[in-house]
């Protein structure tokens, strides 16, 4: 019997979510974005990709498939870095997605650096006093990452609201009006439905 490969499921779920985020029907009509959908896309991509990658790591470590563990590790890193910002992509806020992913990558890097220093000290006979610095780096990175991730997950709904405000502004426009034939001036109002 063939063993189920969680990588296939994770790729399928990721592609489906990405297709839903970037789907374009070709019309010029501006649609509203749901704040709840933006939050759930962020939460869903983070949890589903994170859970699937953990299953890949587990399946690879229990068998002789080290490549599956490595792929799961990279997918886990990607889901932790990019997953919480997926709702911002849905809300067309690429700037927020990029800045949030960069901050999460930075905080993960700080935490992994602290972990690396701490593990290096654990296996050496050197007693140079860096254990405290390693612990501080690890904890500071982990706490900052967690806080920023929750902030970004919650902020996805606000990105959708900001998008909707821009849609409203694009639908209703005001501007100066000048009729050149008789020299009449006024205010022009237009509403796009």
Describe the protein's architecture and organization.
The structure is a single chain. The chain is built from 6 helices and 2 strands. With 193 residues, the chain is mainly alpha-helical. The chain has one domain. It has a two-stranded antiparallel sheet with strand order 1-2. A hairpin with a 4-residue loop joins strand 1 (172-179) and strand 2. Residues 18-28 have low confidence and may be disordered.
Quick structural overview:
With 193 residues, the chain is mainly alpha-helical. It contains six helices and two strands, in the order ααααααββ.
Any descriptors?
single chain, 193 residues, mainly alpha, two-stranded antiparallel sheet
Helices, strands, pairings?
Elements: H1 6-22, H2 35-62, H3 66-82, H4 86-90, H5 94-122, H6 131-171, E1 172-179, E2 184-191
Antiparallel strand pairs: 1-2
Helix pairs in contact: 1-2, 2-3, 2-6, 5-6
Largest sheet: 2 strands, antiparallel
**SSE class:** mainly alpha
Strand composition percent: 5-15%
Q: Can you list the strand order of the major beta sheet? A: 1-2
Average pLDDT confidence is 79
Helix content: over 70%
The best one-word shape is elongated
Count of helical regions = 6
- The tally of domains stands at 1
Low-confidence stretches: 18-28
Distance between the termini: 57 Å
**Number of strand elements:** 2
Order of helices and strands: HHHHHHEE
What Rg do the Cα atoms give?
Answer: 24 Å
């Amino acid at each position: 019997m063939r063993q189920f490969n969680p990588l296939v499921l994770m790729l399928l779920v990721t592609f489906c979510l990405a297709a839903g985020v970037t789907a374009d029907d070709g019309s010029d009509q501006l649609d509203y974005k749901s704040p709840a959908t933006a939050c759930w896309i962020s939460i869903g991509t983070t949890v589903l990709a994170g859970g699937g990658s953990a299953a890949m790591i587990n399946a690879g470590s229990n068998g002789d498939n080290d490549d599956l563990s490595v792929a799961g590790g990279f997918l886990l890193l990607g889901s932790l870095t990019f997953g919480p910002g997926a709702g911002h992509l849905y809300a067309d806020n690429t700037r927020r997605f990029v800045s949030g992913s960069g901050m999460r990558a930075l905080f993960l890097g700080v935490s992994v650096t602290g972990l690396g220093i701490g593990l290096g000290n654990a296996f050496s006979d050197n007693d140079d006093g860096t254990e405290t610095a390693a612990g501080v780096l690890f904890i500071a990175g982990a706490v900052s990452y967690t806080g920023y991730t929750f902030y970004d997950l919650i902020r996805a709904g606000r990105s959708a609201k900001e998008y909707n405000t821009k849609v409203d502004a694009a639908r209703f426009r005001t501007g100066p009006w000048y009729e050149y034939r008789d020299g009449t001036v006024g205010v022009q109002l237009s509403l796009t439905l």
